[in-house]
Records
---
Amino acid sequence: MEIFVLAFFALGYLVLAGADIGVGMLLPYLGRTPGERRETIAAIAPFFLGNEVWLVVTAGVLAGLFPALEAELLHENYPLVVVLLLAWVVRDMGLWLRGRVPGRVWQAAWDGAIVAGSWGLALCWGALLSVVALGIQGPLLVLPALALTALFGTHGLAFAALRLRGVLRERAALLSGGAGELRTFALTAATLATVGALTGVRLEPVAGTSGALLVPVSLVMIPLLVAAQAWVWWTFRHRVTGPSYL
């Protein structure tokens, strides 16, 4: 049961947060003026914080239920994890700070932070999943990491096509065939989930001693989290019509 709880939250993070990471990666392509970039960011604004909750819960489940696996992953991939966390902080700083002070230079600097942080997240997740799933080390690690980064980008394009309108939607629908963005999003989501599941198969988790407490709590929290996520998606199901608070 413990491994299913971990898999649920980890795969949920990859599918949900993979979309806003992909949008951030392709921000210069989707938004070619300050106004367009702000409208593009509005596509992910209601979701990105909620998506990050899935990663926080995943880390908590990993530490509480699989402490030996957590120690192994952190010890063997310490540099990747550090860079991943730095990219996460830089991306979120960009999202929160870009609209706090008027001026093109200020906004352009934080837009760059969003792009750099998003690429850093995608590359680090791609490298980390590749190391665990394929056991590749050294320069050859770049190839599967880039392939997974491209998957994040494709996932973000499909999500942006679902959320944006007009010329922004046309740009985002480059790989979706016009009105096929929902089909493309479902396909990229399934592919990310499959990659995550295949990575998990290569792990050898040994449950710790906290399962008697954490598993029941997790089973109670899962329906609440899913309901909250569904409510957010339903509330913001309409296409973006203008800039957001970011």
---
Amino acid sequence: MGSTRYITSMGELSRKDDSLCFRKNGKNVYIPVETTKEIFCLNEISINSKLLDFIGRNNIVMHFFNYYGGYSGTFYPKNQYMSGKLLIKQVKTFECDRITVARAIVDGIGKNIKEVLYHYYKHEKPEVKPVIDWLSGEFRKSTEAAEDIPELMSYEGEAWARFYGTFEFFLPETFIMNKRVKRPPDNPINALISFGNTLLYAKTVSAIYRTHLDQRISFLHEPAERRFSLSLDISEVFKPVIVFRTIFDLVNNKRLQVEKHFERKINYCVLNDEGRRVFIEAFEKRMESVFMHSRLKRRVSYRTAIKLDCYKLIKFIMEGKAFVPFSLKEGV
């Protein structure tokens, strides 16, 4: 799966000469360091400080997840892209022009939700038209007029809620959502959204790590301890494009089925091992899929598009150039 390695089984990860070795059930699986940029640990694994030192020296980001597929944390190598000048400007932008960046992010979310829904409207699902119209009209006017972050966040929340409300028109009944439940997810569709959002968040952590931006200083979400809040900002506009299009494709083509790919208990629902394998494969395929970038005039992957949004934000912070997050319709 390109430069990303997923570990889904219990075992031990260690350094073996100049490679990584994952040992499970008495067998060794070798992971080449030179082609690995990030590792996703989706099960319990044993590691030691010698391994972490080796991973750190090779600038590999290592993400850890809990039993429910939720994000636990990241081993973040010493940052090799530090820039004091950008850090100062990023803080000043937060203090003086936070609303501009936040408004651009919320507007980008609305545009990409609208584009995803328009696909279903074109394929004889007229029931989604009221939400498309709302996103084009009242939602955009409201975000443009918003005067503070809480107001913007309320419009963003309403956009997602209306989006979730359209699922009944193009998803099977077994994947209909009653309400969004996160910790832990309580039904198959919530399980898929939580898992997909978590993978995308970790991908964004990796992308920001390879720029000079500071992960802790965000604009739409409140900067917080114990999480990389800028990754929440950058990943938001890509959720409709990457996470939800992956979910819709897998569900509507019956590649994921409730009775076959989920583990359900009294108060939670998670993907089983086979379900995670199917989702990860589709998620990575979409991350690596390409589109014609309208400004660069070349084909670009969605993985690269996330990093390009980081550079757009840097341009805004350093040069005042308008920050316009990724648009599915415009291909930029």
